[in-house]
Amino acid sequence: MPLDGVKNIVLVLSGKGGVGKSSVTLQLALALTLQGKSVGILDIDLTGPSIPRLVGKEDAKITQSPRGWIPVEVYPSEITQENGNANEVTTTRGSLRCMSVGFLLRDRGDAVIWRGPKKTAMVRQFLTDVYWGDTDYLLVDTPPGTSDEHIAIGESLLTMSSTSRTAATASGIPFLAGAVLVTTPQAVAISDVRKEINFCVKTQIPTLGVIENMSGYTCPCCGEVSNLFSRGGGEVMAAEMSIPFLGRVPVDVKFGQLVESQKIGDDGIDSDVDDEEADAAEDVQQNPFEDDDRLLVDKYKDCWSHPIFEEFTKQLLSKIEGELN
C-alpha cells in the first residue's frame, strides 16, 4: 500500500522562491525528531532539489528493496532504557530520512529538464514506490508556486490519505494534516502566499499556519535587531485570511554556518573546490561547526533558531495530535 507506515503528512508551501522554504522544512524536521518523532522529508522540488545538500548527503545513493526505494538515512533514532530495565524504553530522539530526485542524479550538477507529464509521473512514483516504514511525520518540501508538482501531489495525497483523522484511522491510511506556508515580510512574497492559500482552499487541503521567515537579523556582536525586509507582513496577512500565524524566524547566522559545514565527501570538502580555495575560505571566517563531528541534530541544538522551531512544532503537534485526545 502506498505510504505504508506513514501516520501524518504535512506539506510545506511557498508562493515565491527564495523565502527559505527548504531550510524551514529541515528545521521543522529536526525539531520534530527532538520531540521523539520519526520524520521523513520528501523533496519534490524536482528542478532545484536542495534537501540533499542541506543534510550533507549529496553523495548518497538510493537503494532498492522488495518493498520499494529506501530513503537516505540522515541519522537514526535514539532509544534509552529506564534504569536498565528492558521493558522501560523511551525514544529520546526520532530518526530522520530523506528522499529527493537529487539522490537519483549521476552528478549533483546535472540539470533536470522535464516537461509537466514527466514531473507528474516522478511525484506519483515518489508517493507509491518509496518504502518509509514507521514514520510519524512525512514533510513534503514543494517547489514555489502552484505548478505541475503541486497539482500532482495534491491529487495523489487526497486519494492516498484523508484530511479526516477519524476516516484515516478507520481506513488505516495516512492523515493529511495540512500545509505550513512560508513567507518573508515583503509585500511581493506575501501576495504570492495568498495565491498558495487559495490553492489550499480549492484543493481542500487544510492550512496549519504561516511562518514569517527572515523576519529581522540579530547582530551576533551587539544584539541589535535590524529589519532587513520590514516586519509583520506575514502576521497581518494571516489575520486578513483568517489562518493561524505560527510566528517569526529571524536570520540565523549559526544555522547558515551549520549548513555550510555539512560534509559532502569523505574528506569533508566539496570536490568542486580545491585545497587552496578551501583554506582561503576558512581564513576569511572560522566556522564553529567545521570540525564538529556530532550529528546534524545535535549541532542544531546550538543554533539560535532551535527554540523558535521547538515552539512551532509544539503548536503543530497540539493541532494535529490534539484530535486524538
UniProtKB/TrEMBL annotation:
Family to which the UniProt record says this protein belongs: Belongs to the Mrp/NBP35 ATP-binding proteins family. NUBP2/CFD1 subfamily.
UniProt name for this protein: Nucleotide binding protein, putative
Subcellular location: Cytoplasm
Role this protein plays: Component of the cytosolic iron-sulfur (Fe/S) protein assembly (CIA) machinery. Required for maturation of extramitochondrial Fe-S proteins. The NBP35-CFD1 heterotetramer forms a Fe-S scaffold complex, mediating the de novo assembly of an Fe-S cluster and its transfer to target apoproteins.
Binding-site residues for ATP, renumbered to this chain: 15-22
Main location: cytoplasm
GO biological process: iron-sulfur cluster assembly; tRNA wobble uridine modification
Provenance organism: Talaromyces stipitatus (strain ATCC 10500 / CBS 375.48 / QM 6759 / NRRL 1006)
UniProt keyword annotation of Iron present: yes
Keywords attached to this entry: 4Fe-4S, ATP-binding, Cytoplasm, Iron, Iron-sulfur, Metal-binding, Nucleotide-binding
GO CC annotations on file: cytosol; cytosolic [4Fe-4S] assembly scaffold complex
Residues annotated for [4Fe-4S] cluster binding in this entry: 219, 222
InterPro entries in UniProt: Mrp/NBP35_ATP-bd, NUBP2/Cfd1_eukaryotes, P-loop_NTPase, YlxH/NBP35
Gene Ontology molecular functions: 4 iron, 4 sulfur cluster binding; ATP binding; ATP hydrolysis activity; ATP-dependent FeS chaperone activity; metal ion binding
Keyword Repressor belongs to the record: no
